[in-house]
Structures are given as structure tokens and as C-alpha cells.
Specification:
Blueprint (H helix, E strand, L loop, with lengths): L10 H10 L3 E3 L2 E3 L8 E2 L9 E6 L6 E9 L4 E6 L4 E14 L9 E3 L4 E4 L5 E17 L4 E2 L12
Antiparallel strand pairs: 1-2, 3-4, 4-5, 5-10, 6-10, 6-11, 7-8, 7-9, 7-10
């Protein structure tokens, strides 16, 4: 297994966060209204098609962050893990998650709107969106993705 810290690719997230101008920020709070979100292409550590809106912090840096991911119907992320805890809540659609080193559709658990999952660092998992899906992900950065099978890594150049 090869671990790749996505901090360089998350420079995009930092740019997104800066471009959003955090709708209302104070020294002790962040207020984000849904119509103020700016959606951009997700970092290259995720398969093409996902969009991201960073709401708090910078996922590429140490410290807390909150972001939303918009996933098209059928969007999949092959088996992978993160080096820090991941908290995820479904806001729209159905987020499906399974545990293990190989994608197994029969092992997916559906998280409808309001569904929540917290995964400890190193938890091997895979995901799929059923319908247009929006999830809110928060944790402590730097956020990274390590694919179980390096060939699944979308950052890997194809010949």
C-alpha cells in the first residue's frame, strides 16, 4: 500500500476556501448559508465528478475543517483510508459505505438523509452515491486519501 498525502492537491481546497470568503467569519464563529456555498471540482485525490465546498478551515492544513461533497448518482470511491478520523453526515440522497479492502456492493450500508458515520484513522472503506448525493465531512486535517490498491488512485497517470 502506498500512502499519498493530498496536501499538494488540496491547495485547490485552500483556494476554494479563500474564494468563498467565508460568508461570515469572526474570531469565534463561522456562519455559512446554503446559497453562499461555492462549489468547485473536488481535489484530484477523488475520482472525477465530485464537487467540493469548503466551509471551515483548510483540509490541507493541521486543524479542524468542514466541507461538503456533491456526488453524482453512481459515484464511487474505491477502497481507501484516511490518516485521521472522518465524520460524515448525509444531507441529500443516499450515501452508501462499506468496510474492507475490496469493493463489494452487497456489503454497502445505506445512509439516507440524516445518516451519520464516524470512521477511525486507518479504517479501510469504500463508498457509492445513490442518487444525487451531498454529504458534509468534517475532521482534523491534513485530510488525505490512501487507496488500498494504488492502481485505483485517480492521481496516478494513465499510460
Amino acid at each position: 500500500m502506498r500512502s499519498i498525502l493530498i496536501a499538494p492537491s488540496l491547495a485547490l481546497c485552500a483556494t476554494i476556501a479563500a474564494a468563498q470568503g467565508a460568508p461570515s467569519q469572526g474570531a469565534s464563529h463561522v456562519v455559512v448559508l446554503p446559497d453562499q456555498l461555492t462549489w468547485k471540482a473536488a481535489p484530484p485525490s477523488l475520482p472525477a465528478g465530485a464537487k467540493v465546498a469548503v466551509m471551515e478551515g483548510n483540509p490541507a492544513e493541521a486543524g479542524p475543517f468542514t466541507m461538503r461533497l456533491s456526488l453524482p448518482n453512481g459515484f464511487r470511491v474505491p477502497p481507501h483510508y484516511h490518516s485521521s478520523i472522518e465524520h460524515l453526515t448525509t444531507l441529500k440522497g443516499t450515501f452508501r459505505v462499506g468496510m474492507g479492502d475490496k469493493f463489494d456492493a452487497a456489503a454497502l450500508t445505506s445512509l439516507p438523509v440524516g445518516g451519520f458515520v464516524a470512521m477511525q484513522p486507518g479504517t479501510h472503506h469504500f463508498v457509492e452515491a445513490q442518487g444525487e448525493t451531498i454529504v458534509q465531512l468534517h475532521g482534523v486535517g491534513p485530510w488525505n486519501v490512501t487507496y488500498i490498491n494504488p492502481a485505483d488512485d485517480p492521481r496516478k497517470a494513465t499510460p
